[in-house]
Amino acid sequence: MEAAPFTPPPTSSFKTPSISSSSSLISLSKNFSRNHLPSKFKSPRNLSVRASNDDSVVTLLDYGAGNVRSVRNAIRHLGFQIKDVQTPKDILNARRLIFPGVGAFAPAMDVLNNTGMGEALCTYIQNDRPFLGICLGLQLLFESSEENGPVGGLGLIPGVVGRFDSSNGFRVPHIGWNALQITKDSEILDDIGNRHVYFVHSYRAMPSNENKEWISSTCNYGDEFIASVRKGKVHAVQFHPEKSGDVGLSVLRSFLLPKSSLTEKRTERKASKLAKRVIACLDVRTNDEGDLVVTKGDQYNVREHAEKNEVRNLGKPVELAGKYYEDGADEVSFLNITGFRDFPLGDLPMLQVLRCASENVFVPLTVGGGIRDFTDSNDRYYSSLEVASEYFRSGADKISIGSDAVHAAEEYLKTKVKTGKSSIEQISRVYGNQAVVVSIDPRRVYLNDPSDVEFKSIRLTNPGPNGEEYAWYQCTINGGREGRPIGAYELAKAVEELGAGEILLNCIDCDGQGKGFDIDLIKMISDAVNIPVIASSGAGAVEHFSDVFSKTNASAALAAGIFHRKEVPIRSVKEHLLKEGIEVRI
């Protein structure tokens, strides 16, 4: 069944039909040429640049992909108004221009080429007008990219954007808080000092003699790559200032108000490398009265063990997200455990939660639950890509796929064919694999002999209830209610091949028990894949976090109940990790 045209959110910037919404980008991404490298842009057709006179206005080049809402919120938080680019002339007339590139390189260049925006952008930059490119907004300035390519870029900076090398043991995508090495006066980086900033990308540009005059900072992740560039009034950063907390807001402030600086310089522990992440998770559902609440399960059961058997209510999602941001959470994850299966997409309660939370939470937001193809109660069909697009436009930085990923992996392992139709493949193709998290919900199945099953099993650190020495981890769907004939190991390997950029690894047996993470499971999976793994389920004390980071290759650890019930504050977790010599963002 063909999907009806997707209605863009009110904040969608371009009004021309070819680029008016995320679905336009989806359409363009199917048609871009991967073999033709356009020549470097030259000064086009005597286009003139004339700046507007309103100091409070920031021009935003939003081409309709990914989470640009967070950039908008950060700009407004700093007291500025936003003018959206609707025509190439708006670029040429901008007093200051921000280009928050999100998604994959080729579809973005397709939009720029098909709308004339690329030509205007080159003219604007070549005239040394105030410009800030973010993430993909930096990469597009280079000559070309290997992502789905080669694909030609704007050609303003010499060099090719290539994929990180995972053969040296570094996980790709590069996700998390890392340190900068500032190489020259960057102006906008003056207030960063020794603190971490947030990166999420699989491709990077490398320093060379040809582009060294542009480089203002580098970052080390396996190799030294370009973290920011500056020439005159033109700036671009590979990291996300709008997701880097108060230090990121200082970068935006320095660009928008070049003479400004923080009055108070913080003296903090020096950031030296990629930090381990501490993530706060909010399980969100409606209670029996119809209110949206944060709850927490005990082995996935969210109802109180009492006579009324009510849904456990631990607070309101937007308020808790703001609190965890202030407490130092490196990311906030929303898990929609109701599913809201009968709602039209535009009315999903989680969309409003994301929109409100992103107004004041300037760290990454992930949302999971219901990311799949579906038909609502009005008989309106939505593809998983359309669903994800609306979540991104509402404030999500990453989406988490659960049951749908299990079905996709089962089909892939059976046929050995990538159809391109699974939610993982569709979303990663348009938004990049760094935007796709797969949530795995396994439970232990104890064994006396590992040869009893076809799935990967492990020798347990602690024997099973009847002395069993081995176990395999059976994946489940539908909130743990249905077991599937696939193991966690097999699922993790399959979804990585399909295009997932990160794995959220739960364990039903440990959920809500407070006895620690399942180290055996997490070690097995984090050793098996080359993408980041988030450890989840079982945290009950600060020692459990240092335990999982010291004994496994987990990149992050997630907790819920201990934070909601104020049993263990996030700050206490980070202070403990620092004492144990584990790098964290402070």
Automatic annotation (TrEMBL):
What EC number is given for this enzyme?
A: 3.5.1.2
What the entry lists under Pfam families is as follows:
GATase, His_biosynth
Question: What top-level class of enzyme does the UniProt entry assign?
Answer: hydrolase
Q: Which domain of life is it from?
A: Eukaryota
Alphabetized InterPro entries for the sequence:
Aldolase_TIM, Class_I_gatase-like, GATASE, His_biosynth, HisF, IGPS_HisA/HisF, IGPS_HisHF, Imidazole-glycPsynth_HisH
Q: Which residues form the Glutamine amidotransferase domain?
A: 60-253
Query: Which GO terms of the molecular function aspect are on file?
Result: glutaminase activity; imidazoleglycerol-phosphate synthase activity; lyase activity
| Gene Ontology process terms (BP) | L-histidine biosynthetic process
Q: Give the location in the cell.
A: Plastid, Chloroplast
Which residues belong to the signal peptide in this entry? none
> What does the protein in this record do?
IGPS catalyzes the conversion of PRFAR and glutamine to IGP, AICAR and glutamate. The glutaminase domain produces the ammonia necessary for the cyclase domain to produce IGP and AICAR from PRFAR. The ammonia is channeled to the active site of the cyclase domain.
Family recorded in the similarity comment: Belongs to the HisA/HisF family.
Under the heading NCBIfam families, the entry gives:
hisF, IMP_synth_hisH
What this protein is called in its record is Imidazole glycerol phosphate synthase hisHF
Q: Which organism is it from?
A: Populus trichocarpa (Western balsam poplar)
